[in-house]
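New to this. Please check this record:
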Amino acid sequence: MQQRNRKVRLVLLAILGANWVVAAAKLAFGLISQSAAVTADGLHSFIDGGSNVLGLVAMGVASRPADEDHPYGHGKFEALASLGIGAMIGIGMLELGRMALDSLLHDKHPQVTATMAGVMAATLVVNLAVTRVERYYGRKYKSSLLLADASHTMSDVYVTLSVLVSLLLVWLGYPRADGVIALCVMVFVAWVAYGIVRHSVGILSDTARLDPVEVARRTLEVTSVRSCHDVRSRGMEESVYVDLKIEVDPQLSTAQAHEVADEVERRLQEAYPQVVDVVVHVEPARGTPANV
């Protein structure tokens, strides 16, 4: 786990550098050209950089080993950071909505130049590369934080696309297109934020990670297990905790019952590599065998 968290932090550092280079380019050119849309897109990119900083701080806490106060480790701090990223996307969505309404109500639009379009196209390519790299490592390391941040960066890609399309339409003589397209992108950004928040809340609220029926079925494959019930699981994708109750022959000795519990734990960890801990409660069998 320590090695995995270190690698996630290295990815975040690299992405942070790329995001702030993009943001600086957009802001500088937006201010020089007095383009509100490009400047606002630069601010949105700085939110991407802020989310990376938040992620680095969270990973520093999440990588700490379990202690007396946190016997299950500090992994949920990563989910808290993902929740913060969702909130940042929401802030960007509100800014995008304000820009769109300002454009529609006051007929404000940027003065389009070829240099402006070229800068925006270049930052778009960088953001696409960042998103692809971050998503790849997010899946490789099963990091909800990297995956959430990749979605955040993807929202910046769509914001930049909307600016490029609106610049084209403004150049063609449709100044209000800037506001209309921005409103459409705002809907997409809202959907991204909702998905990230829902995923993070699922982790923080201990949503079940494994199918209890399937876990019970695998447990019943162990010799001497007569029934399995009260299966529960929680945690993050890469670190799942399971506890369950099994019934065994009441004639078994304590040592034999313990061996059965050890076998159940071994079987489940073989079947589910993401399981880091299994707590097996052993009870004497009563009545008709059943599984739940």
